[in-house]
Specification:
Blueprint lengths: L12 H9 L7 H11 L4 E4 L6 H12 L9 E4 L3 H17 L4 E4 L5 H10 L2 E4 L1 H10 L9 E4 L2 H6 L3 H9 L6 E6 L4 H10 L4 E4 L10 E7 L5 H10 L6 E4 L3 H13 L4 E4 L5 H12 L5 E4 L1 H4 L9 E4 L6 H8 L9 E7 L4 H10 L3 H6 L43
Parallel strand pairs: 1-6, 1-7, 2-4, 2-5, 3-4, 5-6, 8-13, 9-11, 9-12, 10-11, 12-13
Helix pairs in contact: 1-4, 2-3, 3-4, 6-8
Length: about 400
């Protein structure tokens, strides 16, 4: 039985060729769901996890729907962070060029004059809300010609407080337009905004099937405060190291950890909101090319890191809640790859992290580390005495014996 191709979905020969040059020949699930509706000019609501291929899902048909003769910009893509905007442009530039279209990013931290000039000439603009409002306020750009509006990672834009500027921007886009709303959730506030911005939208939801394992190995490591750095260095030099993303709570903590790693001969870079755009882009480039042993990030900064081949995530500082854990660890094991998620847990953190583990049905893995997970109605649990013990969700709660390939699900 033949596999469905991008051409089968209606994508033009020029765009199919540009995708093939990048080694993209078989559509992912979200692309199969969305592309035909976008090509048909329908409004679309799409719920899909990070790393599922949604950029191509909206980008390929947009490249076909926009014409070189259209008023510019004809398509506007809003993204919550500079890093995500840059990555969208990088992903879509070959497709745009295949159709003789210009695409330009708009984000803060770089010179506004050159950016405004390039945006005004672009058929497709990919922008963060704040800098786009700057250009609009200066009269450098008009949205009157926009026929296609995309809100990517819409739930994150809400989390980051962008609702007011997004409302103001959408008000400047013609009402007769096609709107694509992409989000990790379509419930609550995100769902209400989606209903306001779209008209008779087709709704698509993509998630791994219940019977399909998530390709992530979960480990919990009981550590003492004075042992955390040594444990991280071992993780960065271990067999699972590869491309490692390390999470910390604060910007200051990220900078301090990078300096401490440097003293151990480990090359890492910090990613947080106080870094200049040039510093952030340099760090991401070095991370992409494997020149860094690790990228150390805060939760907010990591929202813009969209790298498919992260092999290991280390929670140097544990997450505060279940959602943050899922978001962090979900940075690995994407697009069909496997990955490892390691969480360091000190004695006084065992109760809170144990609750997260129990909610995610990882209590067996948590217990095998020598820690005791929190269950409904249970009091505060103390960490066990097996310091440094780790467990993999591949082993169904058994001590980690080697490289068995059985993987567990996180619902």
């Amino acid at each position: 039985m033949s596999m469905q191709s991008f051409a089968d979905l209606g994508v033009s020969r020029a765009v199919v060729g540009a995708l093939a040059e990048r080694g993209i020949t078989e559509p992912f699930a979200i692309q199969k769901l969305v592309i035909a509706d976008v090509l048909a000019g329908r409004d679309v609501l799409a719920k899909s996890p990070t790393g599922s291929g949604k950029t191509i899902a909206f980008g390929a048909p947009i490249a076909d729907r926009v014409e070189a003769t259209d008023r510019r910009p004809a398509a506007l893509i809003l993204a919550p962070t500079r890093e995500l905007a840059t990555q969208i442009v990088d992903d879509l530039r070959p497709l745009a060029h295949a159709r003789a279209l210009r695409i330009a990013p708009v984000y803060g931290g770089v010179g506004i004059v050159k950016q405004a000039r390039e945006a005004a000439r672009a058929h497709i603009v990919v922008a963060t809300p704040g800098r786009l409002e700057d250009l609009l306020g200066r009269g450098d750009l008009s949205l009157k010609g926009v026929r296609i509006l995309v809100l990517d990672e819409a739930d994150r834009m809400l989390d980051m407080g962008f609702r007011p500027p997004v409302d103001r921007i959408v008000a400047q886009v013609p009402r007769q337009r096609q709107t694509l709303f992409l989000s990790a959730t379509l419930e609550g506030e995100a769902g209400r905004i989606a209903a306001e911005y779209t008209h008779e939208a087709r709704r698509h939801e993509h998630a791994p099937t219940p019977d399909a394992p998530v390709e992530i190995e979960h480990r919990f490591l009981a550590v003492a405060h004075e042992d955390k750095l040594d444990s991280l260095v071992r993780a960065l030099r271990g067999e699972d190291a590869g491309r490692t993303l390390v999470f910390v709570r604060t910007k200051r903590g990220a900078d301090r950890l990078v300096k401490r790693l440097a003293k151990r001969g480990v090359d890492a870079a910090a990613m947080h909101g106080d870094k200049a755009q040039a510093q952030r882009e340099k760090a991401l480039r070095r991370f992409h090319t494997g020149k860094l042993a690790a990228l150390v990030a805060t939760d907010v900064a990591a929202r813009g890191i969209d790298v498919n081949d992260i092999t290991q995530v280390v929670n140097f500082d544990p997450p505060e809640d279940r959602e943050t854990y899922v978001h962090r660890i979900g940075r690995t094991g994407r697009a069909g790859r496997t990955g490892v998620g390691v969480t360091f847990v000190m004695h006084d953190q065992a109760h809170d992290v144990g609750r997260i583990a129990h909610d995610l049905r990882l209590h067996a893995q948590f217990e095998q580390s020598g820690l005791k997970p929190s269950r409904p109605g249970a009091g505060r649990q103390a960490a066990g005495g097996a310091r440094g013990a780790a467990v993999s969700s591949r082993h169904g709660g058994r001590p980690h014996p080697g490289r068995s390939r059985r993987l567990a699900r996180v619902r």
